[in-house]
Amino acid sequence: MMSAGEADDARLVAAILRRDRKATAEFVARYADAVYAYVRSRLAPQYDLADDLVQEVLLAAWENLRQYRGTSALQAWVMGIARHKVEDHYRARLRAPEPIGDADNDPDTPVSIPKFDELLDQERLRKNTWRVLRGLPEPYRLALIWRYWEKASAREMGAKTGKTEKAIERLLARARAEFRERWDHG
Amino acid sequence: MADFRDEEFMRLIADSAAPAESGPAPSHLKAKIYSALMRRQAQSGPLMSLSEIKACGEELCVFEELARIAPLGERAKSLNICRACHARVLAEHIEHAPIYWNGCPYVQLKKS
């Protein structure tokens, strides 16, 4: 038996598929905020690209509603499309040749890391992490976000960008080194 | 080989969720998205007519209601009349546009 939420999702999808304009307005009103917040958090600090990507996500979701099977909440389904679109964005950006970095930096060379455990203030830690991430060159920032926020493996990232796993590991190593450098010398 | 640095970054960055600085989507962005979806739908065939929408118990704005009761065929009532409405133009270009009609989709998006 359907829950109230499932029934409401099914009603909205059916109405959109019947070409009810009010249902489309409801769809945008319901999901634009969540998609917008997610996309901005993943694109920061390049907010100028966020609006276009939000539109792309909602358009893709709306155009593919026939494929929605109701096995998850409609919001989760829409957010799944948002994740894919953000990943497409990372992929496109990381496919471009890297204009920066030292390719000779060996990822296997031990690097001292900041003693994060010594930082007691979690909020300060969060803000500092964010500050450093925001200042990194785009390929480094996207690689770190994709790997550590989205939890993609180097192998997955390699497969999706047409690079080898080793190349992605080298990119991540350079990104971490740059991160550490900026963390230490802010 | 265990990559200690990798784990350290996993913990550091995963614990540092992106700052919640965005707030809700701007109303003009929602308006533009809605307009784009309606354009797309109208290009592929007639929309559900205003008479049918009313019969489903949904609220029409004053202009949609006028179109619904006008002596027009159902085909005319299936057009995307928002395309010719100043409320759409205001909503797409002004944040929190001064539009207030009940049943207007752009007003709904402004309030959402």
Task: Using brief descriptors, characterize the structure shown.
heterodimer; A: 186 residues; mainly alpha; Rna Polymerase Sigma Factor, Chain: A; Arc Repressor Mutant, subunit A; 2 domains; 8 helices; elongated; B: 112 residues; 6 helices; 0% strand
Unreliable segments of 5+ consecutive residues of chain B: none
Mean pLDDT of chain A, as a whole number?
A: 84
Most extensive contact = A-B, 50 and 47 residues
> What about the largest sheet of chain A?
none
Counting helices, strands and paired strands, the structural category of chain A is mainly alpha
- How many E strands of chain A? 0
The run of helices and strands of chain A is HHHHHHHH
How far apart the termini of chain B lie comes to 50 Å
Count of DSSP H/I helices of chain A: 8
Beta content of chain B comes to under 5%
Low-pLDDT windows of residues of chain A: 100-120
Number of domains of chain A: 2
Q: What is the domain total for the residues of chain B?
A: 1
Q: What is the N-to-C succession of helices and strands of chain B?
A: HHHHHH
Give the amount of beta strand of chain A, in percent.
under 5%
Give the overall silhouette of chain B. Answer: elongated
Oligomer: heterodimer
Helix proportion of residues of chain A, in percent?
55-70%
Going by CATH, the architecture of the largest domain in chain A would be Orthogonal Bundle
SSE inventory with pairings:
The complex is a heterodimer of chains A (186) and B (112).
Chain A: H1 4-17, H2 21-43, H3 50-63, H4 74-95, H5 122-135, H6 138-149, H7 154-161, H8 165-185
Helix pairs in contact in A: 1-2, 2-3, 2-4, 3-4, 4-6, 6-8, 7-8
Chain B: H1 4-14, H2 27-43, H3 50-55, H4 62-69, H5 86-93, H6 105-111
Structure description:
The complex is a heterodimer of chains A (186) and B (112). With 186 residues, chain A is an all-alpha fold. Chain A folds into two domains: 4-95, Rna Polymerase Sigma Factor, Chain: A; 116-185, Orthogonal Bundle (Arc Repressor Mutant, subunit A). Chain A has helices at 4-17, 21-43, 50-63, 74-95, 122-135, 138-149, 154-161, 165-185. Chain A is elongated and about 55 Å long. Chain B has one domain (24-111). In chain B, 51% of the residues lie in helices and 0% in strands. In chain B, helix 2 (27-43) crosses helix 5 and helix 2 (27-43) runs antiparallel to helix 6 (105-111). The model of chain B has no long low-confidence stretch (mean pLDDT 87). At the A-B interface, helix 2, helix 3, helix 5, helix 6 and helix 8 of A face helix 1, helix 2 and helix 6 of B.
